Amino acid sequence: MLITGGAGFLGSHLCDRLIGMGHQVVCLDNLVTGSMDNLAHLLGHERFTYVHYNVCDYLYVEGPLDAVMHFASPASPQDYLEFPIATLKVGALGTHKALGLAKAKNARFLLASTSEVYGDPLVSPQSEAYWGNVNPISPRGVYDEAKRFAEAMTMAYHRYHGLDSRIVRIFNTYGPRMRPHDGRVVSNFIVQALSGKPLTVFGTGKQTRSFCYVDDLIEGITRLLLAPSDRTPKQRTDRQSFLYEKNDSPLVESVHEPINIGNPQELTVLEIAKRVQALSGTQVPLEFKPLPADDPKVRCPDIRRAKELLGWEPKVSLDEGLRRTIEYFRKKLA
Ligand code: UDP
After folding, report:
1. Most exposed of 71, 222, 280, 288 (fewest Cβ within 10 Å)?
2. Is 265 left (phi over 0), alpha (psi -120 to 50) or beta?
3. How many whole angstroms separate alpha carbon 110 and alpha carbon 5?
4. What is the reported pLDDT for 283?
């Protein structure tokens, strides 16, 4: 199996899971936002290979591949604002290369997409049927549009080439291996609390997010990866029928269409700040800062599809997940 972005927060947890299941794993990463610290324990493992590589370049690996998983991309708003063009390129060119490799190897393909495809949503919770509300020219549009393009490209390979593809729309996730200065809210608050600094709340703090612990997310992604295909690629020879598929076709409930994976417990940013204060045992104050442009006002996954198709739902409570993450950062910062 091949994972692009395997040195990142989610990519490295996925490498661990697949190695643990007995698979052979090739990990590609150019370490723009990933880190070798996340893979140190796997280096030297007989079933693990790391290659320093920019996946926007032509992709080739020797031998057979069962699956290609495209996780490479800056994923924190702070990162995609710092690397806007790299974000667009890895979502567009990188996805194209990863799809091409999967097609050449007759491998299954899994795209790491995002709840950002829903933009600043006008409906909540967001089901996969919602088309989203994205501003293409806002600073965060680089990530949203790159992932929307990546989804469109993946579905085109599925429909036109019969590629056995999957798309996971990942909602906010937290846990060990987030970078201390990643910029995302949970890691920021924990690092700030543990260093005795004020928690930086953007805007009023009344905007909502729904946080999934990383182990739950990886379980959902693994189930999606391993779920049987609706039809094998060989049966997909009648291209016309796929091009003119109707919305009422059984494929609407297909593992090849996007699936939300996230925890539907919705909280305001102020509520997250309070949980971090309580669980870290610190009484640092809050410091209000301006809200970034086009910061979504609400976000909450509708996970009925994941429940029905994969039998998946999150298991780790917010307090338990936060405790484990605080513990990780305590050691990391020590
Ligand atoms: N946020 C915050 N303080 C921080 C970092 C983020 O209040 O130090 C807010 C941010 O404005 C957003 C929410 O927390 O409303 C989640 O931000 P994050 O960057 O974690 O992810 P997003 O869901 O926006 O991609």
Report:
1. 288
2. beta
3. 13
4. 87
Q: Ligand 1 test: best mutation among 82, 140, 170, 185, most atoms within 8 Å of CB? A: 185
Residue 170 lies in a domain: yes
Establish if 105 belongs to a structural domain.
yes
Nearest residue to 264 via CA among 235, 303, 225, 293: 303
Evaluate: CB of 280 within 6 angstroms of ligand 1: no
Q: Which residues pair with 68 in a beta bridge?
A: 2, 109
Residues 166-195 have pLDDT tens digits of 999 999 999 999 999 999 999 999 999 999
- Phi/psi for 332 (5° steps) reads -60, -40
Distance CA 125, CA 143 (A): 21
* Structural domains in the chain (count): 1
CATH number of the domain to which 95 belongs: 3.40.50.720
Distance CA 262, CA 241 (A): 33
- Domain with 129, as residue range(s), is 2-175+212-262+302-314
Structure-token match 């798309």, residue found: 167
Give 67's pLDDT tier (boundaries 50, 70, 90): very high
* CA 172/CA 74 separation, integer angstroms: 14
Residue 271 counted as domain residue: no
Tell me if 255 is assigned to some domain: yes
Cβ of residue 271 lying under 6 Å from some atom of ligand 1: no
In angstroms, the CA 187 to CA 115 distance is 19
Query: Of all atoms in ligand 1, which is nearest to the CA of residue 116?
Result: 25
Atom 18 in ligand 1: which residue has the minimum CA distance? 184
Residue 198, ligand 1, Cβ within 6 A: no
Q: How far is the CA of 334 from the centre of ligand 1 (A)?
A: 25
